[in-house]
Design brief:
InterPro entries: UDG_Type-4/5, UdgB-like, Uracil-DNA_glycosylase-like, Uracil-DNA_glycosylase-like_sf. By secondary structure, the chain is of the alpha/beta class. It is built from 10 helices and 5 strands, in the order ααααβααβαβαββαα.
Length: 262
C-alpha cells in the first residue's frame, strides 16, 4: 500500500520540465479539457521550449503587434468527435502565435477551406483563437505540440510527446470512427499509438501515401473498426507545387466524413 502511494505521489509531483512529464500526466487525464490543461504546461523538450519561446519573443515583422502564445498548442475540436485529423506540429508563426492548431498560417487556410467545403467547419478561415470557428465532429491533433525548428521534430521529441496523443485518442475512442493523417511523419508517429490503444495494426505496417485507406479492427470486438486515411500535408511546398490541390483535400475529407457518419 505504501509503495503504491509512493508511486502515485511521484507521478503527481512530476514537474513540467521533467522528460517524463507527458508519460506520467497524460494517462491520468479523464477529459480532453484536463488533458489540454496539462499539455500547455509541458516543458519536457528543452530544444523545443527554447525555440518556441525565442520565436515568441523575436516575432515576425508582420506580427510584431501580436502577443505570441509561445507554449505547447493543444488539440482543437469537440470531445465527441468521430473524425480525428493528425498533423505534424504547430507552425512557428501559426499555432505558436495564435495558440490554436492550424490557425493563422497558409496550411491552416487550406485545411479549413476543405473542412468547410464538406460541412465539417463553420467557416473557411481561421485567423485567431477567438474568431468563432467551430468544428463539427472533427478533432485536430498532432504528434508534437510545440513548434520545432525547421518544422522537424527529432525522434526523441516525437516519442516524448507521444503520451499526449495516445491519451487524446483514448479519450476520443468511444465515438472515434476515422483518422485522417496529414503527411508521412504523422503516419509513422500514429501507428504505434493506435496499436497501443487497442487497434490491430497490420504487419508489415501499411505505408503512407495520399489516398491510402486502411481499416483497423479493434482488439475489443465490442468496439467498431477504425478507418485510417492518408493525405499529403497541406504545407505551402505541397500546395504551391500542385502536389496537393484543394479538390484533392476536399475529396479526402468527403470520404472521411462519409466513413464517420458525419
Amino acid at each position: 500500500m505504501d509503495e503504491a502511494r509512493g508511486t502515485e505521489a511521484e507521478e503527481l509531483s512530476a514537474e513540467p520540465d521533467d522528460p517524463a512529464f507527458p508519460a506520467r500526466r497524460a494517462p491520468r487525464c479523464r477529459s480532453l479539457d484536463a488533458l489540454d490543461a496539462q499539455v500547455v504546461r509541458c516543458r519536457a523538450c528543452p530544444r523545443l521550449v527554447a525555440w518556441r519561446e525565442e520565436v515568441a519573443a523575436t516575432k515576425r515583422a508582420a506580427f510584431r503587434d501580436w502577443e505570441y502564445w509561445g507554449r505547447p498548442v493543444p488539440g482543437f475540436g469537440p470531445p465527441d468527435a468521430a473524425l480525428a485529423v493528425v498533423g505534424l506540429a504547430p507552425a512557428a508563426h501559426g499555432g505558436n502565435r495564435t495558440g490554436r492548431m492550424f490557425t493563422g498560417d497558409a496550411s491552416g487556410d487550406f485545411l479549413f477551406a476543405a473542412l468547410h467545403a464538406v460541412g465539417l467547419a463553420s467557416q473557411a478561415e481561421a485567423t485567431h483563437a477567438g474568431d468563432g470557428l467551430e468544428l463539427r465532429g472533427v478533432r485536430l491533433a498532432a504528434p508534437v505540440h510545440c513548434a520545432p525548428p525547421d518544422n522537424k521534430p527529432t525522434p526523441q521529441e516525437r516519442d516524448t510527446c507521444r503520451p499526449w496523443l495516445a491519451a487524446e485518442l483514448e479519450l476520443l475512442s468511444p465515438g472515434l470512427r476515422t483518422v485522417v493523417v496529414l503527411g508521412a511523419f504523422g503516419w509513422q508517429a500514429l501507428l504505434p499509438v493506435l496499436g497501443a490503444a487497442g487497434w490491430q495494426v497490420p504487419r508489415p505496417r501499411p505505408k503512407f501515401g495520399h489516398g491510402v485507406q486502411v481499416t483497423l479492427a479493434a482488439s475489443d470486438k465490442s468496439r467498431p473498426p477504425l478507418h485510417l486515411l492518408g493525405c499529403y500535408h497541406p504545407s505551402q511546398r505541397n500546395t504551391s507545387t500542385g502536389r496537393l490541390t484543394l479538390p484533392m483535400l476536399v475529396e479526402v475529407f468527403g470520404e472521411a466524413a462519409r466513413l464517420s457518419g458525419l
